[in-house]
Design brief:
alpha/beta; Aspartate Aminotransferase, domain 2; Aspartate Aminotransferase, domain 1; 2 domains; seven-stranded mixed β-sheet; four-stranded antiparallel β-sheet
């Protein structure tokens, strides 16, 4: 039967896809004007990108920050820095964007997927350890939704096996693991400046490290392996042009100065929503581990289908009637269920680098990933940004509680 209800929300939630949910303004315009007046739009000759890199390194307390064209490029820099041999393995998560996986394949390595914790959707030391082999070249952890992975345990594991640890921090600006900023725990931290991230340049990325050798290799990789400013330069290895433009750098500089206040607002509003939903039966709100700081790229609920009939999909449909968007499952399937992995579609018909893989490394049997399948089946992801205020959160909390009540028979 067609649902004819039309319920208008009392407020329209700010969106990070336009100005309502972003902090772009006069500060960005002023720096953009400087770039246009200068006539220099390339970062190899300009000042905006180097200034952004220096300030970002200062904010994170690291020696090096290298800006690049996208979050995907940032992950690619990190993978290229550890320089895998063809057929080497890199342990990663199946709940992530393809932009965090394609760089592994482009560098000739095999993504080996670790299962995740059902509650956080993050990989753990235990699930990573099951994937380590004598071919493991690196571990990539993704701090999903802004909630840090269990970094002390993972760091200990990586150190015990002498394996470089890469942090994908695209969703986790200023998140902290036991007091340490994510991105500064592993050998390399990779961040995204895509439209919907904590700060944005539309597209863009940046990597950080304290390792001088890794830093040099990543800066080379941004610049087609050409060492600008060094004596006797030459193209030292196969690499791409992943440079950030001065226009992006100008926006990034202004955005970075707004990061701390934006994150504080995200956290405060998330805590308000968590408190408001505390008594809603069948809903589990996100929680960080003791000593950690979750910085809420999105707000991820767990919905118990035994108490909320229809689970996340039904709740999303109810919220949509009221004009509130949400995303059941976050991604519709684990990454290894995408065609690129299932049919090994890479370079022509070669299947490279899958042609070099151990059978165990590309075994995607569902029984090996109970956490990933259960995690995706039970979550509903709510949009979130730094423009949310008390009134938005209170409206959202009321809408969720009402929708759960209708589904469970407790309200009409």
């Amino acid at each position: 039967m067609t649902d004819l209800r039309v319920v208008q929300p009392s407020l329209v939630l700010p969106s990070d896809q336009d100005a309502t949910g972003r902090t772009l303004g006069d500060e960005e315009l002023a720096l953009l004007a400087e770039v246009i007046r200068s006539g220099t739009l390339t970062s190899t000759k300009g000042i905006q990108v180097p200034e952004f890199e220096a300030r970002f390194a200062e904010v994170l307390g690291v020696r090096h920050a290298i800006a690049c064209a996208s979050g995907t490029a940032a992950v690619h820099l990190a993978i290229a820095a550890v320089d895998p041999e063809p057929g080497d393995e890199i342990v990663t998560t199946p709940i992530t964007d393809m932009g965090a996986l394609s760089p592994i394949l482009y560098q000739g390595a095999i993504p080996v997927f670790a299962d995740v914790d059902v509650e956080t959707c993050n990989v753990t030391a235990e699930t990573i350890e099951r994937c380590i082999s004598d071919r493991t070249k690196a571990i990539v952890v993704t701090h999903l939704f802004g909630n840090p992975c269990d970094m002390p345990a993972i760091e200990d594991l990586a150190r015990a096996h002498d394996i470089p640890l890469i942090e994908d921090c695209a969703q986790a600006y200023l998140a902290r693991s036991r007091g340490r900023l994510v991105g500064t725990v592993g050998a390399v931290g990779a961040f995204s400046l895509q439209q919907g991230k904590h700060i944005t340049t539309g597209e863009g990325g940046i990597v950080v490290t304290d390792d001088d050798g890794l830093a040099r290799r990543m800066r080379l990789f941004v610049n087609k392996a050409w060492p600008y400013g060094e004596p006797g330069p030459d193209h030292e290895f196969l690499a791409l042009n992943y440079r950030m433009t001065e226009l992006q750098g100008a926006v990034a500089r202004a955005q970075l100065e707004k990061l701390a206040s934006g994150v504080a607002q995200r956290v405060a509003m998330a805590e308000r929503l968590t408190s408001a939903l505390e008594g809603v039966d069948g809903i589990t709100t996100p929680k960080a581990a003791p000593g950690d700081v979750h910085t809420y790229w999105k707000y991820c609920l767990r919905v118990d289908e035994r108490k909320v009939p229809g689970g996340p999909q039904a709740l999303a449909a109810e919220l949509k009637v009221g004009g509130i968007a949400s995303a059941p499952r976050y991604i519709q399937k684990p990454a290894f269920r995408c065609v690129v992995f299932e049919e090994q579609r890479t370079f022509g018909s070669s299947r490279f680098p899958f042609s070099l893989a151990r059978p165990e490394a590309v075994d995607y049997d569902e029984a090996r990933f109970p956490g990933a399948f259960d995690a995706l089946a039970g979550i509903l992801v709510l949009p979130w940004n730094e423009r949310y205020g008390d009134e938005h959160v209170d409206m959202l909390a009321g809408a969720i509680a009402d929708a759960v009540g209708r589904l469970s028979g407790g309200a009409v």
